[in-house]
């Protein structure tokens, strides 16, 4: 069996058709209790109305309590070696009506062997996991003796990941990935982290690269750099190098603990924001309808909005304020989408975009107005 610590926030879900579920895996030597006490998940779970599940590796794990991510002997059709336990956990919690989990918002993350197992699960079951958060995790197909130096290639790891998925490769079309690691990690070779980003970006078809600053992120140490891999619709893979971070879970707050750093970005906040902002599986056009206040006076007939093909150039924030766009996430990494068409407008409040009206309730992106 596998023991699990579950946190269910009192706050309501903030996106999609129910609550998101984050399964977060400890690293070697660690326990789920360490993440529960010092991993800094509670505040983020409360903010997003997200359920967080912290499992312990079954039967004490392997090799110092590690998750069994090793080698290429993993199967989506006959899962075993912890893969079956984690799949069952995701399915069981998603089916528990009282939790109200949206199956389009099931995520998994983890440190070290938990990061390696996170990548394994994302490759095995891309249709189940909408996002994978890999923290200093070795690449799929490697062994316990290969953590100190990169022992695989992008081509080999890509082949392994695709083979793991079996008949479920269609799930890669909408999966997201976030990779984070520290400049001072002397346990798992940092080359694995950049390789993980390249492997998943290649599988996703996210060939457009850009860089971003960590300065606006939550946390106590926002030194480092970020790389974003995008496709034609928007961001798919984020890779963050946090300067000064060692081989630790980047809690970014609190007192730290066993392989947990308080001197880092707030990774729970970042990875959740990234997944919520860019999830391709939830309905972005759904807008809650406010309940009208009772009134004794007659309701006037609304004046139809003219459909005149009008075009407006403004900042993304101004478009959203005027009801022409929607956005999710935290500035400056929040993607914007045109109302109705959901055409991608780029990231950040200050980005300037031209939108042309298609109908009374739909706008689309154009190169320029006029």
From TrEMBL:
One of its GO terms (cellular component) is extracellular region. Residues 282-305 are annotated as: Disordered. Keywords: Hydrolase, Signal. Signal peptide: none annotated. GO terms for molecular function: hydrolase activity. It comes from the Bacteria. It holds the Pfam family Esterase_PHB. InterPro entries: AB_hydrolase_fold, Esterase_phb, Plant_Biomass_Hydrol_Est. NCBIfam families: esterase_phb (TIGR01840). This is Plasmid partitioning protein.
């Amino acid at each position: 069996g596998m023991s699990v610590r579950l946190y269910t926030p009192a706050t309501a879900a903030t996106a999609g058709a129910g609550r998101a579920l984050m399964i977060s895996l400890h690293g070697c030597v660690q326990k789920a209790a360490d993440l529960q006490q010092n991993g800094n998940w509670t505040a983020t779970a409360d903010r997003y109305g997200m359920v967080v599940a912290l499992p312990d590796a079954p039967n004490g794990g392997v090799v110092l309590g590690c998750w069994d991510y090793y080698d290429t002997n993993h199967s989506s059709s006959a899962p075993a070696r912890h893969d079956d336990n984690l799949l069952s956990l995701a399915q069981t919690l998603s089916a528990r009506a009282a939790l109200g989990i949206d199956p389009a918002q099931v995520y998994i993350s983890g440190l070290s062997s938990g990061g390696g197992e996170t990548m394994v699960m994302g490759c095995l079951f891309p249709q189940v996991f909408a996002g994978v958060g890999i923290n200093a995790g070795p690449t799929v197909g490697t062994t316990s003796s290969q953590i100190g130096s990169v022992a695989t290639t992008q081509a080999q790891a890509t082949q392994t990941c695709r083979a793991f998925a079996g008949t479920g490769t269609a799930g890669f079309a909408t999966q997201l990935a976030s990779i984070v690691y520290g400049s001072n990690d002397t346990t798992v070779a940092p080359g694995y982290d950049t390789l993980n980003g390249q492997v998943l970006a290649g599988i996703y078809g996210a060939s457009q690269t850009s860089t971003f600053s960590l300065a606006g992120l939550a946390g106590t140490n926002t030194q480092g750099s970020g790389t974003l891999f995008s496709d034609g619709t928007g961001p798919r893979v984020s890779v963050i190098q946090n300067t000064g971070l060692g081989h630790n879970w980047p809690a970014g707050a609190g007192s730290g603990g066993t392989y947990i750093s308080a001197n880092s970005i707030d990774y729970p906040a970042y990875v959740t924001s990234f997944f919520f902002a860019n999830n391709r599986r939830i309905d972005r056009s759904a807008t809650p309808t406010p309940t009208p206040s009772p009134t004794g006076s007659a309701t006037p007939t609304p004046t139809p909005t003219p459909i005149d093909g009008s075009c407006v150039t403004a900042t993304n924030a101004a478009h959203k304020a005027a009801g022409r766009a929607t956005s999710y996430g935290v500035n400056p990494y929040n993607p914007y989408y045109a109302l109705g068409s959901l055409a991608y407008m780029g990231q950040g409040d200050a980005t300037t975009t031209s939108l042309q009206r298609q109908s009374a309730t739909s706008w689309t992106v154009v190169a320029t107005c006029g």
